[in-house]
Write the structure tokens for this entry.
Amino acid sequence: MSNLADIILNETRQIIENKAEVCPEITVESEFLVDLPMDSLDLATLIVTLELTTGIDPFRDGFKTFHSIAELIALYEGAAV
Amino acid sequence: MKHIMVTGGSRGLGLGIVIHLLNQGYKVSTCSRNKTTAVDDLVNNNEHVKWFQCEVGNAEQTATFVKSACEWAEVPLWGLINNAGIAKEGVLATFPNVESDALLQVNLNGALYFAREVLRVFLRQNTAGRIINISSIIGSRGYTGLAAYSASKAGLDGLTRALARENGRRNITVNSIAPGYLDTEMSSTLSDKKRDQIIRRTPMHRLGTVADITPAISFLLSDEAAFITGQTLTIDGGITN
Ligand SMILES: NC(=O)c1ccc[n+]([C@@H]2O[C@H](COP(=O)([O-])OP(=O)(O)OC[C@H]3O[C@@H](n4cnc5c(N)ncnc54)[C@H](OP(=O)(O)O)[C@@H]3O)[C@@H](O)[C@H]2O)c1
């Protein structure tokens, strides 16, 4: 798994655990707002944190749709090249 | 100690807010396009305040200011006062589009860019927070010759209500304060006739002062105001009654 994928998985887990929630098993197929105990502000927190840790902002030029962890990883890997 | 950010703190209401918040024990960062001697005096005599040059309405400069101010403060950011604003008068039929674009860019987009950056800080900090937008009674009442200004302030109140809903679950409150006519540089262009008319129509029989507004700011920033959000507080000596 790529470094970016690791970072995204770890940050996601961290945000869930910070809410004092038991983190369910996270796979790349997990959908943020469906399978994980996350709301839209948690997702915003994740994006803001990722921008800070990776220096990458895939949303600079506008909205891009994603639902699952795999889709978000693809966005970051696409923006990193 | 808590850090509060005030836009447009070089004179008028913004400067009054900065001084008031310093007296209340806050650490205050502020910005404007130009430095004034009043700001210079303040900064030279108080280590808890810092001025930055920043053009409100410019997204990049906003992000840079918020980052630099947070690094300077070294304590968590607690609040944003979106105060910077401009007013230009003229009937819309002959009001140049470039002028209304510029006004909306500062008064509405400028406040929105600031709110965005500050909300990102609140999320990163994982803390509650406060946003106070300085609106105007003109936003709800309208005024001949102030169509763009009125639209910008009505937009600001809409922003307040939406952000209050969006961020309430993080204990972040968002409110507007809508002053009536204040005795600042912005209102200095009022003709004597208009000024007298406003004073006659105001139950308190005077224009507002900066000191009439600042106590409401510190109240909305306080823990006592934790359940007040999405509101527009009118402070106008009763003129819109
Ligand atoms: N005065 C009134 O009667 C009245 C009534 C109701 C509401 N309000 C509202 O209260 C707020 C403050 O008004 P005021 O009377 O104190 O106005 P003011 O005396 O004209 O001061 C405006 C402040 O905002 C700054 N500013 C303006 N445009 C800016 C920009 N693009 N970027 C950065 N800073 C900018 C100015 O500094 P620079 O010019 O150096 O940038 C100054 O510090 C405004 O939002 C206004 O709409 C005023």
